[in-house]
Amino acid sequence: MESTSLNRSPGQYIRSLWHPFLWVPLVVLVAGLTVTAFTAEQLANHTRILAEHAYRAQHDALVNRLHAEAVAQSPERQVEEWLASVFSMPYPSLAAIRVDTLERHTKMPLFQTGPLVPLDDSRSLRSEINLDRHHWLITTMPDNTVFRQRANTARYATWTAGTMITAIGVALTLFLSARIHTLSDQLSDRQLASEKLDQQLGNMQVEKSILRQALNDSEQRSRDLVALSGAMIGELDEQGCIGFISATAADWLQRAPADLSETPFEELVAPEHRANFRKALAAARSEKQMHRIDLELLTADQDENIVPATLRILALQDPVHGFAGYRISARPSAATT
């Protein structure tokens, strides 16, 4: 049986895919990318905030260290060299460190690390330090590149993981959608085939009813013809036993047809004619032609009523099994009519 899906045009096939089986992968793709983008930005912002907190903690640690070093060794002379020794350790998150004195009005710092060009101090932190003889202002400026790198790292990692998960989800959804689409087509084909079979079955039922009616009409016609002919019709098996005999037997022999079933027909023949009857059966079987014989049939009251009859015998031939019995007809002899 040819599938109906083979008869579709490319445009119809594409439209059938989009209704509705490709909507689910599309929704998974859009939802996955949307969630990934939102999560990436949230993690990037959170990483930036953590970096800013780390920068504040580093600024506080720097101020505390300056206090501790001042207590251990008071900076009386060569303050610039003393500050350079205190801040000799690297600070990766700081772009610049600057120490200004508040004791006199000057724009020149006591100490400065980092580039000399002006920096964006929107995120810079300042703290005043009061020592015994010094009043300083320490300013730290963060390295914005570090903030961006950490935020971008979090963003890229989130996008990578989200994209992989979304791709896997879309691939699985596409596979399942294609499978559902194939099963749907097969189901449609099965339903169409079932409808065709139902239609054929209905046609066969109608044909069967017509044939049954024709057979009933034929049987009724045969019974009518047998009844109108006045002959006694019967069928014998291979051994000559009665398999069927018409209702005329009740009129002729005063015996019901049902009582004669499986009875050897030879028992209905007068004893003096039985030898000729057997010869007629053998001749009909061997010559495969209809044979005629005149004989006398016995009624239920064998002592009083004997029916002279003309018996015609025809051997039946089955295409598969060969010989299959006899068909006979009996009419009253001319002497009795």
Q: What's the helix and strand layout?
A:
Elements: H1 10-18, H2 23-72, H3 79-86, E1 94-101, E2 111-113, E3 125-130, E4 135-142, H4 144-229, E5 232-236, E6 242-245, H5 248-253, H6 274-287, E7 291-298, E8 306-318, E9 322-332
Antiparallel strand pairs: 1-2, 1-4, 3-4, 5-6, 5-9, 7-8, 8-9
Model description:
Residues 220-286 form the PAS domain. The chain crosses the membrane at residues 20-40, 156-178. Pfam families: PAS_4 (PF08448). This is PAS/PAC sensor protein. One of its GO terms (molecular function) is kinase activity. The chain is built from 6 helices and 9 strands, in the order αααββββαββααβββ. The model is unreliable at 1-6 (pLDDT under 50). The strands form 2 sheets. A 5-stranded antiparallel beta sheet has the order 6-5-9-8-7. The protein has a 4-stranded antiparallel beta sheet with strand order 2-1-4-3, covered by helices on one side. Strand 5 (232-236) and strand 6 form a beta hairpin. It has helices at residues 10-18, 23-72, 79-86, 144-229, 248-253, 274-287, and strands at residues 94-101, 111-113, 125-130, 135-142, 232-236, 242-245, 291-298, 306-318, 322-332. The two termini are 67 Å apart. Helix 2 (23-72) runs antiparallel to helix 4. Helix content is 51%, strand content 20%. By secondary structure, it is of the alpha+beta class. The protein has 2 domains: 1-227, no CATH class; 230-332, PAS domain (Beta-Lactamase). The protein is rod-shaped.
